[in-house]
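# step 3/5: fold
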Amino acid sequence: MSPPARPDAGPSPAAPETRRSLAVWAVIGAAVMAAVDEIVFHQVLGWHHFYDRSTTAVGLLSDGLLHTAELLALVAGLFLHADLRRRRALAPAHARAGFLLGLGAFQLFDGIVDHKLLRLHQIRYGVDVTPYDWAWNVTAVFLLLTGLALTVRARRPERVGSAGPGRRGPAS
């Protein structure tokens, strides 16, 4: 006969899902950067709309659609995060890396594809956009490189103390 299960015991810890943790938080990071862009540059500063090649009404509609997509991505990402937490499968180091990768990926995509290739909008109008483009894209690359460095660091096997696994530390 097996012992009765403890009613207060939660689900048993699962193996951390490193790729899923990274991907879920990359979605959250992209959604957060889209929100920051939309709120700060589109609404507060009023520098541009998501689509500026038509009327103001179309620009506002495009902002609303961007905001809707960003909120849906954020909600979906948070539900997926909750599932990882519930199953005790969240890999926090990979999640942090994914968040920075998502921030940087959205910003670089916006800076290169939306601003330059598709010309949906510029960061600002009526000024030389070169310093704005450099600041936007260099920040994006910095976020991506930091996220990549954290990904590499998260993939390294954990070290026991400072001596490494299987080695004895300094004698006390």
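# step 4/5: annotate
Residues 159-172 have pLDDT under 50 and may be disordered.
# step 5/5: archive (pending)
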